[in-house]
């Protein structure tokens, strides 16, 4: 099995190194990741400048672009054989609910999915990398599941509690929860006295009911959410067709 690994925290992040180490024994891996932290890059492609690919001492490739750039280059410009699976992460912090629209971690997996390749995004629920070894072990087990019950390609979003492996709950199928709107921007000044803005914190959970990714991880379970790309609002489409007839 050939696996392409990427992330949005950058090629030096502990999460991607732990994930690569966990998967080396079960697959032929290649790592192509951003040269720096690109959290929140979503599905953006760099169209305003050329991109470069360099190789680190550990064999990882790093790109001066977004997570989507990395996967796009790996699939269309590096090597002849496509991977059997693309995995992204392990992210330093959760990607649940509305986070998935902003997440570079999920975006890297989504790019593979758009190319017809099964993909899985992995995130730890809390920042700080606590119990990263346990998260990497869970990620390995998830990859080994193969998910033959799903049509290919599939796109899975996995969120792993920061718990010791022995305290981890089961793999739990979930739907996306919802957040309240984000906190306001933070106003500040740069050293020259010019007004600057920092993006505020994400909103608190609005829907963390049973069956959601928020609920599962709050109860120590590993959340696995199947994602899709079609953003069409089907009920409103029907209303629109009726209203414009």
UniProtKB/TrEMBL annotation:
Q: Which Pfam families match?
A: SurE
- Compartments, record wording: Cytoplasm
- Superkingdom, taxonomy of origin: Bacteria
Nucleotide-binding among the record's keywords? Answer: yes
Q: Which residues bind a divalent metal cation?
A: 8-9, 39, 91
InterPro entries the UniProt entry points to: SurE (IPR030048), SurE-like_Pase/nucleotidase (IPR002828), SurE-like_sf (IPR036523)
Q: Which cofactor does it need?
A: a divalent metal cation
Cross-referenced NCBIfam families: PRK00346.1-3 (NF001489), PRK00346.1-4 (NF001490), surE (TIGR00087)
Q: Which family does it belong to?
A: Belongs to the SurE nucleotidase family.
Functionally, this protein is described as follows: Nucleotidase that shows phosphatase activity on nucleoside 5'-monophosphates.
Protein known as: 5'-nucleotidase SurE
Which organism's genome codes for this protein? Massilia suwonensis
Gene designation: surE
